[in-house]
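User: Some background: our group keeps a shared notebook of sequences we're curious about, and every so often someone picks one and asks for a predicted structure to add to the entry. Today it's my turn. The entry only has the sequence so far, pasted here. Could you supply the structure so I can complete it?
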Amino acid sequence: MSEEAPRESKPFEESIEKLIARLRRVALPPNVFNIYHTGDPAHDVRGGAAKRRENLRRYLKALPDPKFVLIGLCPGWRGARFTGVPFTDEARLCLTGSCYDRTSSSPEPLRERSAGVAMDLIGARTDVVCWNAVPWHCHEADEPMSNATPSAEAINLGAAELEYFLARLYPRAQPVSVGEIARDVLSQVSKRHGIPPADSGIWSQFRAAIHVRHPAHGGEKEFREGLARILGITLHEDADD
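Assistant: Of course. Here's the predicted structure to add to the notebook entry:
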């Protein structure tokens, strides 16, 4: 890719604010919880939604020009549901002394396996930013602390936010989808926004790195190996403990 001038902070931060406003005001279908708008007295601390918005704001501001966008499915109830930041959980993101706040009312910080696998690989890297195809928490009916496959309506709403995210915040970053649904949503957005397919032009060098398996449901090893290749990480045999 050709080198470009550094991002101007003001337009970038304005785009972050617009994104958060979009996420907050969207009308969602049943069984989709808006983590950036709504507080749940049974499971959130006071002001939980505002804390999640601030967590997301700080996270994105710290990553103004990443090389990759890692795109997952949607927040899990043990992970981004309570942090507001994709591929994270309270136990690893909201450490004592960090700028990120817990929002669950759980006595102990929540842990999510998939978040742990991703965070162990990404660490403190600033060349990777994470997002979700559906940025709100999808759950089973009457089971707010569960995870569910997003409906077609939720996916369509999430695709609009993904398009905004890529076009306005990170137009120079290479999208990497995690899981089949994220890959399908990214494909829809790519066609609509004119992003070239993986086998053409400047993206041809990333042909094998455009998609990785999701770490859930037995996919940890393939996820680690795929993402490690993309990020240039050498895995050790004890990485699966």
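Suggested note for the entry: The domain at 28-198+209-233 is CATH 3.40.470.10 (Uracil-DNA Glycosylase, subunit E). The CA atoms of residues 75 and 231 lie 23 Å apart.
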